[in-house]
Specification:
Rossmann fold; alpha/beta; 6-stranded parallel beta sheet; 11 strands; 2 domains
């Protein structure tokens, strides 16, 4: 019997409708249009598609949006100058620096330069620290998308063993922090696996919920999954011109109880959380909350 499909596209459409309603209410109450600025450096084709999709989603939700395209030859100093300009622009509430950046630029220096109140990707050390303490300003978009999907699908996490494949700063680490906290969609026992994990398949088979986020096409095979487990595939890979995840979908769906597809799973949720974070950022900066005047950079 095949696993139940977790339809991220359907869930995200409902979520985005709610965000659009709240954006309209915020605009009506304050006269402020929440605005996201995306900075795209270089000519990476996948990045161009991601930014295009984010731009379209912002417009549909009633958010202001600006895409700043910089040539591949852009220096680190030039990119930092753009970030500083956006930090100090009161009309911009969220800043997204699209990764990867060209090799002459250190991505961490650029991400650290984004003022924490506009860091809608939740990459700044201050926001990561707040997340670790369980008092986040923003939730990182992809991990929060995973958590919202689990909640929406009524998949319990409390007391469950969640195994995360991958320890990246974008997905693995922040998702582990979120799922181990007290609260809705959390209270899980979390194991994070990586390239140095021994007896990997034995660990993954112990999972009630298995999250794959390592960027290796179809890495998770059916024999790595406990029958009845929930499988969340965060990977996006292109193989022979087609998108696939980190999970061998056709084989694993015969073992799991529920599974996300690629495309159409976690991806749409990531953009939905970016919209919500931009609205949150605008509210923080408009309300005059402590630190709202911090323009960093």
């Amino acid at each position: 019997m095949s696993a139940r499909l977790i339809d991220g596209k359907r869930i995200s459409e409902v979520f985005r409708s709610d965000v659009a309603r709240r954006v309209a209410e915020f605009r009506s109450a304050t006269g402020v249009i929440p605005k996201l600025a995306a900075v795209l450096t270089g000519d990476d084709p996948a990045s161009a598609v991601y930014v295009k999709n984010k731009h379209a989603a912002c417009e549909q939700a009633g958010l202001g949006t600006e895409v700043i395209r910089l040539p591949r030859e852009t220096t680190e100093a030039e990119l930092l100058a753009v970030v500083h300009r956006l930090n100090t622009d009161p009309a911009v509430h969220g800043i997204l620096v699209q990764l990867p950046v060209p090799p002459q630029i250190q991505p961490q220096r650029v991400l650290d330069a984004v003022t924490p109140l506009k860091d809608v990707d939740c990459f700044h050390p201050e926001n990561v620290g707040r997340l670790a303490q369980g008092r986040p300003r923003f939730l990182p978009c992809t991990p929060a998308g995973v958590q919202r999907m689990l909640i929406q699908e009524q998949i319990a996490t409390a007391g469950k063993h969640v195994v995360i494949l991958g320890r990246s700063d974008i997905v693995g680490k922040p998702l582990a922090l979120m799922l181990m906290q007290k609260g809705k969609g959390a209270n899980a026992t979390v194991t994070v696996c990586h390239s140095q994990t021994s007896n990997l398949a034995e660990v993954t088979r112990s999972a009630d919920i298995l999250v794959a986020a390592i960027g290796v096409p179809r890495f998770v095979t059916a024999d790595m999954v406990r029958p009845g487990a929930v499988v969340i595939d965060v990977g996006i890979n292109r193989v022979e011109g087609r998108l696939c995840g980190d999970v061998d979908f056709e084989a694993v769906r015969e073992v799991a109880s529920a599974i996300t597809p690629v495309p159409g799973g976690v991806g749409p949720m990531t953009i939905s959380l970016l919209l919500e974070n931009t609205l949150t950022a605008a509210a923080l900066q408009t309300s005059g909350a402590p630190g709202a005047g911090n323009t960093g950079g």
